[in-house]
Amino acid sequence: MARVEPAFQRLIDLNGAFDVRDVLIFLNQPGGGPKPVVLQAGPSRPTIDRMTGTDHTLQTMDWTGVRAMVFDMDGTLLNTEHAIVTAASQTLVQLGHAPLPAAYRMPNMFGTAADLMADVLKERQLPMPQAGKAQLGQWFEHHYAQQPPHGAPLYAGVRAWLQAARDQGLALAVCTNKQHALALKGLEAAGILELFQVVTGRDSCGVAKPAPDPLLFTLGHLHVPPEAAVFFGDTHADAACAQAAGVRFAWFTAGFGTDLVRQYPRVLDFADYRGLPLPTAALA
To answer: Is pLDDT above 70 for 216?
Structure first.
């Protein structure tokens, strides 16, 4: 049986080989003990964890008390991997190095632009340019901004699920380590910018994830307390940010994250928005 942890809604681990039909969870209630809620078995869509091959079957989930949902962008809403690798490769060429090989996997898909490029240089055993790490990040962002506007597609089911959440009266926001202007451009190109009330970039409050500041900054602009929000992300940086901010965390396992995410509290693991239960009881 799941164990209650302060400030977090806790699910039974669905990553094991369980034949789950009805799952009991506990919701911490303000001023009282845990309230048992049954996730009812019903129509569902199987989802596959790309890292483990585990087949997850998602059940209807009770979102009581949730007023806002905040989303990471890269690897959570948009599959930006190709655009990121292309921009990194072009940055290397600008520095006089060979481009990245085909099917290259970035060693860092969770940090700022400067962090991403610094780790590419380290992995390729290349020196840091004299201009420094910050300038390296700016060069990367310049090349990223030149990528085709529709080169970062939405993950399947994202648009419909976000719209359904909006229709339920939930506040939606984005909290990303991407530069704010690039985040706006990417969300607009994907056709979902208008669904979000707030978009926070790594330059919006001067601190990047995994620090809690960007997420708390986002919730402050939504006028929603941490305990009334859920943060959706794909990497351990997102999970650590949520934990530090006192916000429940939902892990999109089909993104860019690794097993490091499993070290952090989570309320949900899912690999497909089309199998994610709609938040019909969120405002009950």
So the answer is: yes
Task: Check if 72 is active-site.
Answer: yes
| 8 φ/ψ angles, rounded to the nearest 5 degrees | -130, 145
Residues β-bridged to residue 57: 46
| Residues 6 or more apart in contact with residue 25 via CB below 8 angstroms | 2, 9, 10, 11, 12, 36, 37, 39, 62
Residue indicated by tokens 């962008």 = 73
Residue 112: which pLDDT band, with cuts at 50, 70 and 90? Answer: confident
| Residue position matching structure tokens 């602009």 | 221
Q: Three-state DSSP class for 252?
A: strand
Taking only the tens place, the pLDDT of each residue in 151-201 is 899 999 999 999 999 998 999 999 999 999 999 999 999 999 999 999 999
Task: Please work out, in degrees rounded to the nearest 5, the angle formed at the alpha carbon of residue 19 by the alpha carbons of 16 and 21.
Answer: 120
Last residue of a domain, one of 101, 126, 145: 145
Q: Which two tokens stand for residue 116?
A: 């991403």
Residues 69 and 95 in one domain: no
For residue 280, what pLDDT is reported? 59
Task: Count up the domains in the chain and report the number.
Answer: 2
Residue 77, pLDDT score: 98
Phi-psi region of 103 (alpha: psi -120 to 50; beta: other; left: phi over 0): left
- Angstrom CA distances, 210 to 127, 200, 236, stand at 26, 14, 8
DSSP state letter for 270: E
Tell me the chain's radius of gyration from C-alpha atoms: 19
39-43, 76-80, 172-176: which range is least confident on average? 39-43
**Domain interval for residue 116:** 81-145
Choose, from 13, 49, 55, 72, the residue flagged as catalytic: 72
Distance, CA of 61 to CA of 39 (rounded, Å): 5
**Residue in the structure block whose two tokens are 């209807």:** 60
| Residue corresponding to tokens 């034949």 | 19
